[in-house]
């Protein structure tokens, strides 16, 4: 398997002077996803958990709904400039053929389509409507999930350059944590894990992400039927709109004991010792 970290020389400058020393960096390499030998997409990712990544990616794009729809996944290996073997092409066999070349992916924040079109597209493609029930989580438990996520980011400790996503039970137990140079890849990896563990739809689970909550991340949560998404940073306006329409509980700015709850806040319950405060 490809390396997930690499060493590079750096010139460190500080008030005490300068020093030449090696630095540990997160590896970024392309992963080409093929269906039956035909190229579907290329994503820049940190190597590792690639099979989970492609399961989550295809679920997010509405191409599969259960893990059994992928009947085979094999690497097409090559070598890099140093002669090391690479694993940057993953060829999948699907139980039912899909028109790869005409496949249109969901719109992201980089496209010019209107928000209404994007919302309608997710609603049409999602196989797992989020139930009214969903997870019920205590505020203190939810507030502690980012710390748990952070404690399991071993690659971030080494590099400082990776995003993370984790799936949690309502009592705060971390079921799966994945890291990647791209936050969308980290989410695909944990969703792919859940799909392969027969945990999709994941209406009873909480997805925690280390950065902001973009439309794309909310879309992925909705496609997997996840009931709650918590982000360390801010959501976008379209992310909030999609969460509201889909029935997803969305909380942002999960830092310390504070948070902003944007949608479907009834699933987040106040701790008995937490006193309400008027704005």
Short description:
Belongs to the FdhD family. It contains seven helices and 16 strands.
Indicate the CATH architecture of the largest domain: 3-Layer(aba) Sandwich
The number of distinct helices, counting runs of at least 4 residues, comes to: 7
Summed over residues and divided by their number, the pLDDT gives a mean of 86
Strands, total number = 16
CATH superfamily membership of the largest domain: Cytidine Deaminase, domain 2
Classify the secondary structure makeup into a structural class: alpha/beta
Strand order of the largest sheet: 11-10-12-13-14-15
Distance between the termini: 53 Å
User: What is the string of SSEs from the N terminus onward?
Assistant: EEEEHEEEEHEHHEEHEHEHEEE
From the 3D structure, determine the CATH topology of the largest domain: Cytidine Deaminase, domain 2
The biggest beta sheet is recorded as: 6 strands, mixed
Strand % is: 25-35%
Basic shape: flat
Count of the separate structural domains: 2
Rg, Cα atoms, Å: 20 Å
Low-confidence residue ranges: 107-114
Helix content: 25-40%
Q: What is the CATH level 1 assignment of the largest domain?
A: Alpha Beta
Pfam families: FdhD-NarQ (PF02634)
Family: Belongs to the FdhD family.
Organism: Nocardia ninae NBRC 108245
Active site: 111
């Amino acid at each position: 398997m490809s390396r997930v970290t690499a060493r590079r020389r750096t010139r460190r400058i500080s008030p005490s002077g300068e020093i030449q020393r090696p630095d540990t960096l997160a590896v970024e390499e392309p992963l080409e996803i093929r269906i039956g030998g035909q190229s579907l997409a290329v994503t820049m990712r940190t190597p590792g958990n690639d099979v989970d990544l492609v399961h989550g990616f295809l679920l997010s794009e509405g191409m599969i709904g259960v893990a059994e729809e992928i009947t085979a996944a094999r690497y097409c290996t090559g070598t890099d400039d140093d002669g090391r073997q690479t694993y940057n092409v993953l060829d999948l066999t699907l139980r039912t053929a899909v028109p790869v070349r005409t496949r249109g992916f969901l719109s992201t924040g980089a496209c010019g389509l209107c928000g209404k079109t994007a919302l309608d597209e997710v609603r049409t493609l999602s196989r797992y409507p989020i139930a009214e029930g969903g997870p019920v989580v205590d505020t203190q438990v939810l507030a502690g999930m980012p710390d748990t996520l952070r404690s399991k980011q071993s690659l971030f400790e080494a590099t400082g350059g990776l995003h993370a996503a984790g799936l949690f039970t309502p009592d705060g137990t971390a079921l799966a944590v994945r890291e990647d140079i791209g936050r969308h890849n980290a989410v695909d990896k944990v969703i792919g894990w859940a799909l392969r563990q027969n945990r999709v739809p994941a209406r009873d689970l909480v997805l925690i992400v280390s950065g902001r909550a973009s439309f794309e991340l909310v879309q992925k949560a909705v496609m997997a039927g996840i009931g709650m998404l918590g982000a360390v940073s801010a959501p976008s306006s379209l992310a909030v709109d999609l969460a509201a329409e889909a029935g997803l509980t969305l909380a942002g700015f999960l830092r310390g004991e504070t948070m902003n709850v944007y949608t479907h806040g009834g699933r987040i319950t106040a701790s008995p010792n937490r006193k309400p405060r008027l704005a």
